[in-house]
Amino acid sequence: MKIKINKKLLLEDWMQYMMDHYGEPGAEEYAKVHSQSLDDNIQDEHILDKTEKPDFKPSPDAPVLKGKYNYFDDPEHTSMRMIRKVADKHHINYDKAIDNAHKYMKKLHHQENDYKVHGSNHVKGSTIEGAYQTSKKTLESAAKRFVRGYPELTMDAPYLNINHPLPVKDMNLQQQTAMTIANLSQHGNSTNHLQHFPKMLEGNKQAAHEMYYLDHHTKPDLKTIQRWERIDPVPDHYNHRAEKILMKRALKNNDYNYARYIKNAFASI
Q1: If residue 182 lies in a helix (H) or strand (E), which one and from where to where?
Q2: Which of 119-123, 148-152, 195-199 shows the lowest mean pLDDT across its residues?
Q3: How open is the CA angle 218-188-215, to the nearest 5 degrees?
Q4: Which of 224, 59, 19, 51 is CA-nearest to residue 133?
Q5: For residue 9, what is the DSSP state?
Q6: For 203-222, how does the pLDDT look when each residue is reduced to its tens digit (9 = 90+)?
Q7: Around Cβ 245, how many Cβ atoms within 10 Å?
Q8: How many CB atoms lie within 10 A of CB 260?
Q9: What pTM did the predictor assign?
Q10: Is pLDDT of 201 > 80?
Q11: CA 168, 169, 172 angle in degrees (round to 5)?
């Protein structure tokens, strides 16, 4: 969509506009990033003239409450109960765990779909969809991991039925969040994989940063890497660990071209 931008609009106006319409504190960072590319004529579906109506809105099924997206506000929500189970197992303060999980899911939502609840990646043949850009294969894996890790909750989350999970396009934000938490918290069989989620709940920034590459977006391209490093900035040595994780996986799969790609990608950050 090509639109005319009034260059007299101040950055503060943009930030306030985004906050008024989308209620997201992260709009400040979002507005700053996009303000760098403002021009007389630009094409960007996320920057809107204040005289136009927004071309996307948070889904009615994903209400905005008190300036925050409603990822899991209900103490009895499936996500909260999964987090409580992990926190209890690893002796993590529950309030701290919920706060860290909320921060992480907000970053992941920003990273994957700019706070939109639905929408695909527009790649022909791709099944990737939703707030966290989840593929059909990942949805099916998440449903299996949910049953394996949280059998006591299966009756409360029929949308994660192991045989017929609800398509992501039909899930609201809370349901997508529960699916993603089930997937991240039960991803893989190794101790190293399973430790990243509880460490994130504890507030370990390194574990949280690496979990994105380990358990969510396991073969990112350069733009994805650059975006995550900007949204979730960490000290340089964390980036080196993330690079090693992706390099090790590529070499294990004999994917030498991607291994070289990863090396060049992190060198460019």
Answers
A1: helix 173-185
A2: 119-123
A3: 25
A4: 224
A5: S
A6: 999 999 989 988 888 888 88
A7: 16
A8: 12
A9: 0.70
A10: yes
A11: 75
Spatial CB neighbours of 266, under 8 Å, sequence gap ≥ 6: 225, 239, 240, 242, 243
- Give 62-110 pLDDT, tens digit per residue: 333 333 457 776 666 899 999 999 999 999 999 999 999 999 999 999 9
Residue in the structure block whose two tokens are 């529950």: 94
Q: Tokens 């993603």 label which residue?
A: 180
DSSP string, 11-54: HHHHHHHHHHHH--TTHHHHHHHHHTT--SEEE-TT---TTSPP
Strand partners, 24: none
Q: Are strands 64-65 and 41-43 parallel, antiparallel or unpaired?
A: unpaired
* C-beta of residue 168 within 8 angstroms of C-beta of residue 134: yes
> What pLDDT, on the 0 to 100 scale, is given for residue 1?
36
Q: Which residue, 173, 171, 148, 145, is CA-closest to 159?
A: 171
- Residue 142, amino acid: A
Rounded (5°) CA angle 211-215-221:
90
Cβ atoms of residues 262 and 250 within 8 Å: yes
- Helix, strand, coil distribution of the chain in percent, nearest 5: 60, 5, 40
Which has more pLDDT, 12 or 66?
Answer: 12
SS3 65: strand
3 strand-pairing partners: 42
| Sequence spans of domains, the chain | 2-57, 76-218
Residue 235 exposure: Cα atoms within 13 Å on the Cβ side: 5
| Degrees, nearest 5: CA angle 42-47-51 | 100
SS3 71: coil
What are the two backbone dihedrals, phi and then psi, of residue 104, each rounded to the nearest 5 degrees?
-70, -45
